[in-house]
Amino acid sequence: MTHRRALLSIEPLARAAVSFAVIATLTACATPPRTGLDTVRPETINLPLIQGWFDGRRAYYVTTDMSDAGMSGMTGANYVPRLANALPPEPRVPGAPSSTDRIYKFPNAEQASVLPSAPEPLGPGNASNAYSPLWQIVNVTWNRGVTPVLLRSEREVLEAEDVGRVTLEITRIVVNCPVVRIEDDLLRGASLPRGR
To answer: Which of 71, 87, 150, 142 is nearest to 113 (CA)?
Structure first.
């Protein structure tokens, strides 16, 4: 079998998202058994890398799936309505575990999204129990008369809400956006084009 290459084009989640091209080697979640009847080789595809913020650092993710038909149509991501089932029923029970985390999105394109969690470190050594690649979108809107500033962490977003600078709107939209890079740290097996 020859080494195949495919190009997957997904528009950024938001106009404010900074897109970069990343070359990622994708392999199965578990190494498949080698039976001699088939040979599984990793394939390489190009995906847009979207820049966001995590604890004051640049974090990069790819967007593959969305529970909202309109957003998936605009971005080219897979429309996956079942992703919404990852959210607990309303009203939420305090302290109940969830498979999702919030992502703070700026629908008016003032800046890139803010992630409250990420793998630490990236890869199989991740020790963060808070991280999930499934994100519930929370729209962040600057209140009238407020000059937007760059918010680079969840703490800064929540502080801006506390003092009345922004309004948060929790949606029922879930997106699958795995974090693959934090600053210069890359997910194992991933590589960047030369010069990035």
So the answer is: 150
